[in-house]
Amino acid sequence: MIRFENITAAYNQQIAVNQVSFSVNKPTIVGILGPNGAGKSTFLKAALKLIPASGNVLYQGEPLAKNQKEVAYVEQKSAIDYTFPITVSEVVALGLYPHLKPWQRMKNHLEKVNAALKAVDMQDFSNRQIGELSGGQFQRVLLARTLVQDAKLIFLDEPFVGIDTTSEQIIMELLRNLKQKGKTIFIVHHDLSKVSDYFDEILLLKQKKIAYGPVKEVFTSQYLKEAYGDYLFIGGDLT
What we know:
Elements: E1 2-11, E2 14-24, E3 29-33, H1 40-47, E4 54-59, E5 62-63, E6 71-74, H2 88-93, H3 110-119, H4 135-149, E7 153-157, H5 165-180, E8 184-188, H6 195-198, E9 201-206, E10 208-214, H7 215-218, H8 221-228, E11 233-234, E12 237-238
Parallel strand pairs: 3-8, 3-9, 6-7, 7-8
Antiparallel strand pairs: 1-2, 1-4, 4-5, 9-10, 11-12
Helix pairs in contact: 3-4, 4-5
């Protein structure tokens, strides 16, 4: 389905991600895990060619660059300018642009925007400026944008940082539903206590690939110690 081949990226001549290769063969939710500085966000950006990088990504046997309409990417909220004068519905509508023909008008597709906002329980905020939203509300709006885009591949960079529990639960339920509809979702994540509940498979990074596979095979003390060192807390217990 999708294969990452030797993804490598560097900052200031320092390798941040080194020769990462793996394949995902069915719709699934993949957690991208590793300690701070492991290259998790860099891997996403390198794979999507958002930064200079080497390696290839193949989707259905073709370069991912030929299937850009099938890709939705949500960057970290900290990288977004909340003062930009744009409303909630306008943010969501941005997800429609890859599918519009030159002669089509945006207003003819606004029912999709409204449906997406309803799916994330943000329909009452459609005319709010994004700076008026909480972190969790804004993350739900970004997810609504991916819903209207209807991409097959969804890449989320730390979507649960700084958001409320309600928003996190709404987002995870939506992501599970999207997987059931045939989507493949990649999530950069740092909270090890929720790994078993959230993900089907894990990519464990520390610049290079430590392991990739089902949670029960990768989320083990052996691999975690290789990535994080000898001591770490999982769910309040020292491992």
